[in-house]
Amino acid sequence: xxxxxxxxxxxxxxxxxxxxxxxxxxxxxxxxxxxxxxxxxxxxxxxxxxxxxxxxxxxxxxxxxxxxxxxxxxxxxxxxxxxxxxxxxxxxxxxxxxxxxxxxxxxxxxxxxxxxxxxxxxxxxxxxxxxxxxxxxxxxxxxxxxxxxxxxxxxxxxxxxxxxxxxxxxxx
Length: 172
Hints:
Blueprint: E1 2-6, H1 10-21, E2 25-30, H2 35-43, E3 44-45, E4 49-50, E5 55-58, E6 61-64, E7 67-72, E8 89-92, H3 100-108, E9 113-116, E10 143-145, H4 149-164
Parallel strand pairs: 1-2, 1-8, 2-7, 8-9, 9-10
Antiparallel strand pairs: 3-4, 5-6, 6-7
């Protein structure tokens, strides 16, 4: 599976760390920052600490532990080379392309599936919260939302409370 990350902020960078640990094949990162800055931000994370591996950059690529990842600087998702790169999955982590139409630009560019790292305002975009409803959602849907960080943190706990004792209402 070939994966691309659109947006290399906090979410894009932590996704890449996790992907590297799980041998997920990330082949491209699209961000408006230059490779030198992206390499530095990936290497020196103020929350997750310094990345213990090797990080360098050259010729519009990042090299992480010897794996070369292409860096793109395309502001329009419809113009990204996802078809050429045979991208199966785009992690949409900019926070900007959260509607079905906007996330769909990645599909138009040739990606097979998009996971939005934020809630979508569109009711027809399935929201997946791991540990809560992933068994109820068609995970093959071309566009999925992974909800919000707040939802992902509180929903599993609320599910346990509701399943065991019932929750009448709540406020987060």
